Amino acid sequence: MPILALLAALMAVTVSSDANAQRSSASVLSEHEIEALDSMGPQSAAELLLERSINHFRGANEQIAARASAWRGQITLNERLHNLFLTAINSDDLAVRAAGIEVDIAARDVEKHASSVDRLEQVARAGDQGPRANALWDLGLIGNRGIEPERIAQILLASIHDDNINIRYWAVEGLAYLGTDAVIEPLLDVLHDDPSPMIRERAACGLAQSGMLSQKQRVKAIPRLIDLAEETGIDRTTRTWVFQALRDITGLSFPQDAAVWRHWYYTTTSH
Known about the structure:
- This protein has 16 helices and no strands.
- Helix content is 69%, strand content 0%.
- It has helices at residues 3-19, 31-37, 42-54, 60-71, 79-89, 94-107, 114-125, 129-144, 149-157, 165-178, 184-193, 197-208, 215-219, 222-230, 236-250, 258-268.
C-alpha cells in the first residue's frame, strides 16, 4: 500500500466520525460575530475566536491570522485564554494548533520577524535557565509560522545535549513545535540517547502526537521506531513509549512485538 494510501486509511475513521456528528448549527463564524469583532477589545476577540477555532467554526482561523499581529502586546494569557490555548495545541486539527500558536505568540509579545530570531538566539545560547527556556519555546513557535525555520532548527539543536535538563526539555519541545522534516531524526536520536526518562518521553510525544508535525511527517519515523523497539539494550519504559508512538501514529493496536510491526510495515507499505 503506498504511503499516501496508508495515510488516507489511517484518517478514514476520524473523517467518518466527524461526518456523523450532529451539528447544532452550520459551524460558521456568524456575520454578527464578525461585525462585533472590531468593537471588541483584543482580549475578548482573541478568546472568542480561539474558542470558535477549537470548535471548528469556518472563518475563525482566518480571522485569527489576520488579527494576531495587531494583538501583540495587547492580550495576556489570563486563565481563560491560557486554557483555550492548551486545548487548541492539543487539537487533532493542525490548523487549530496553528491558531493557538498565533495567539500565544501575540500574548507573549513576540514579533514574527527575523529580528526576533536575532534577539532570541542570543538568549537561547547563553544566560539564565528561565529566559533560555522561554527563548527556545518562542523560537520553535515563530519558526513554525515560517520565520527562518532552518536557522531556528540549528539554534534548537545546539541545546538538545545541554547539561541542564530543563534546557533540553524546551529544546525538544521547540523542535516538536517547529514541525519541519529536519526535526524527525534529532527527536528519534533524543528518544534513543537522552539520559533522562522525562526528555525521552517528550521526544516520543513530539514524534507521535504533540507539536506541529503532520501525520504524513510522523509516518516517516516508523522505520526507526521499529528499529528502536528491536534493540536489546533499550530499557523497558522507553520501549513502551516507542510502541505507544507507533500506535498513536498509525491508529493500529498491534502488541508490543517489533516483529509484528516490522512485518506489517514491510508488507503493507511501499518504500
